[in-house]
Input
Amino acid sequence: MFEWLNAHIAYWHWIVLGFVLACGEILLPSFILLWFGLSAVVVGALLFFVPMPLSGQLLLWVILALINVWVWFKWISPSFKTKSLSGMAKESMIGQTGLVIECNGAHAGRGTLRFTIPILGNDEWQFICEDAVEPGSRVVVRDISGNTLIVSASKSNSNTV
Output
């Protein structure tokens, strides 16, 4: 069988295999088949100019596919990952510094703070704080409980915005 394949595999078989694998990528979201298909097209194009045995073709295809997959996962794929905080509301809030604009006299440690720029669409938020704060104090967001921020007094507390 191997001898028959060695005698009957033509360059266009590799190119057709490459396109079939690349089209199979439509069904998979991983971009793996695309690189195997691209490697098969390269082997077919190279086989058009340089005849080589089937074992050499297979070895070249495997090496090219592994190099393509490695390059994809090492350098190309990480650059496509989102760097926004979309869908990460809590992570985007934690560490933000706001200015206390109102303290609730009836409930100690509660009040309203304001951010210099709107965060998650709102620049004023209700907060809960265990530290003693007064209007004009800076606080840092530590956590979120529902629609209320859990804050602590900022170490670099100043009264300017």
